[in-house]
Amino acid sequence: MDYISAGDIEKYSYCPLSWWLSRNEKHAENEGVKKHREISKGAADMKKKYSQMKEFESMAIYFSVGATIIALVGISFFYTSLILSRTFIIFSILWLGFSVYLLWKSEKSVSVDRKRTERIMVSTSAAATTLSIFSVTFLLPPNYTLGYVLEVLSLLWLVFATYFLYMAMKKDIQYNEIKRKLQLPDGEIIYIDDLQKSPILKSEKYKIWGRPDLLIKKGEDYIPVEIKTGRVPRGPHFSHIMQLTAYMLLVEENYKAPPYGLLKYGPVIYKIDYEEDLKNLMLQKVKEMREALKTGEVHRNHNKIGKCLHCSRRDICPERLA
Ligand code: SF4
Question: pTM for the complete prediction?
Answer without folding.
Answer: 0.70
